[in-house]
């Protein structure tokens, strides 16, 4: 157990991600040295020791042995086949109180399945949800579920709303976040059976500032603070936004290089362009958060490099310190009092 008075470390899955373990270990070193976040690496000791030695950080970051690792192309069933994987051991450290949170850049399906199996859902939570911050101003817009629960029931979307509100209040300091339901039209009767019934339930739920339906073109307009949908729709929407942002920047870069006048204009707007690039860069924000489990879990982008991994570790440590689990527990208790169990 961690000595009294010292912050618990973040358990970092060092074997998960497209750039593991090199960039993962480099991110751990950045988290410790530049962000003052304690980290414990979980993975193959010999490999991780050599990576730490490259950064002269062997004495700064402990290693916990894990015999196996989930490949990036492995799905949810791999969590059952590999009980000694690095993500499973990381979750175990949180469960027994030796770490404050889990961070992984591994397979999202594997992280979700392993988290549900090892950490278990919080009391009253039927399904967890992945929350991501969309790059809006003046604050991010929280979108969930971004892929944890593809086939959701209407009552689950109400619970997702409570999870999203708890996240917005805790992580972003929003005093009364507004909630919108993502569907195909602003009118209450628009959408499939799931959306229509979810709209009825959300409109009648106490403790939720429900603003009604929103459409896909509203995602980046800051129309609401929290956007709720099922995991299938949310994942498609998120990847569409990411692809659109990437395409827009590529086109902007080509346009600025077309002529001397364009290059001059780009130089004059350099500060604004850097600010915009930073705001839209997923590496700067740490990643998605898996909400509804008995432990804080942050899922970094699979292609994360050192900076993104360090940001994910900082986000995980901050959410744990801010009591996100307790805040969700309060919200879920409200949900279960307002609606019948399903």
Describe the structure.
The chain is an alpha/beta fold and 342 residues long. 45% of the residues lie in helices and 14% in strands. It has an 11-stranded mixed sheet, with helices on both faces. α7 links the parallel β7 and β8. α6 crosses α7 (193-203) and α6 packs antiparallel against α12. The longest helix has 26 residues, at 231-256. The chain is globular. The two termini are 38 Å apart.
- Our Rg estimate from Cα atoms comes to 21 Å
CATH topology of the largest domain: Isopropylmalate Dehydrogenase
Q: Please mark out the parts with pLDDT under 50 across 5 or more consecutive residues, or reply none.
A: none
Helix content bin: 40-55%
- Name the quaternary structure: single chain
CATH class of the largest domain: Alpha Beta
| Count of individual domains | 2
